[in-house]
């Protein structure tokens, strides 16, 4: 595996992979890799001959009060995992390589980027879309893989790729979970032991709400019950628990094919997100 930090070297290395034949897959990450990320890499290898993984903690998607400074950074351990996982290239640029002095461009989406994470974290998806567009132009992959854990991000990137004619196949990969249901996430490292136990309430509340809706409970009542369960477990604030169309992220008042029940809530200093299907 090649570790590359400069765009010109990346282009040369990807060009050499392409010349050897086969498809190129990109897995964008912010590092501190866990089994959820490695599932994306494994799925990428099943779908393409060459896998490029990016690790870049993108300052433009963090608000000033968010956790950019303490976001976990473990590049050497990540590189070992990726080598074992069969990645061809680890693309790990510094911030000034990604955003050189004078950088002045930003991508802004409406539609699926507006509600939920877009409302609670203003500017977040502009930062995500801008860096993902840059990663796409730097690597020019045939396919790119994103986790369903960040369901809205997957919907936003899918929309952007269609709107801007990137011609890249976007693949969503199912959520990898701990044995007790908690979705794997780099930010789980912030949880202390007591919070880690309490965090189980998030997937449970979503699972129960999904079953209740399938069983005929009105959506508003099921969402209120899930919100109460999260408050009782110590989550504060509960930013949202909502049923949406899985593509447009528009709110739904009853289950429908492709829908998604999404939640975000804070436990101490850790903000967790999760989602489950209802009608699939
Ligand atoms: N448990 C998971 N299952 C499936 N995909 C995941 C999981 N966790 C992360 N991913 C995906 O990995 C990619 C990179 O995500 P990122 O590096 O931000 O990791 P993360 O664990 O989501 O971190 P964070 O705690 O910052 O949300 C994203 O497409 C994300 O959806
Ligand atoms: C897609 C991404 C790598 C863009 O910085 C990030 O939002 C993430 O890790 O999900
Ligand atoms: N995994 C999503 C990236 C973020 O929360 O900034």
UniProtKB/TrEMBL annotation:
Pfam families attached to this UniProt entry: Pantoate_ligase (PF02569)
UniProt-annotated binding residues for beta-alanine: 61
Recorded GO MF terms: ligase activity
Predominant location: cytoplasm
Subcellular location: Cytoplasm
EC number of this enzyme: 6.3.2.1
Residues forming the catalytic site: 37
Amino-acid positions noted as binding ATP in the UniProt annotation, renumbered to this chain: 30-37, 147-150, 176, 184-187
Catalytic activity annotation: (R)-pantoate + beta-alanine + ATP = (R)-pantothenate + AMP + diphosphate + H(+)
Chain sites annotated for binding (R)-pantoate: 61, 153
Keyword Cytoplasm: yes
UniProtKB keywords: ATP-binding, Cytoplasm, Ligase, Nucleotide-binding, Pantothenate biosynthesis
Leading EC class: ligase
Annotated metabolic or biological route of this protein: Cofactor biosynthesis; (R)-pantothenate biosynthesis; (R)-pantothenate from (R)-pantoate and beta-alanine: step 1/1
CDD domains, alphabetized: PanC
InterPro entries in the record: Cyt_trans-like, Pantoate_ligase
Function: Catalyzes the condensation of pantoate with beta-alanine in an ATP-dependent reaction via a pantoyl-adenylate intermediate.
Subunit field text: Homodimer.
Miscellaneous notes: The reaction proceeds by a bi uni uni bi ping pong mechanism.
Protein family: Belongs to the pantothenate synthetase family.
Protein name: Pantothenate synthetase
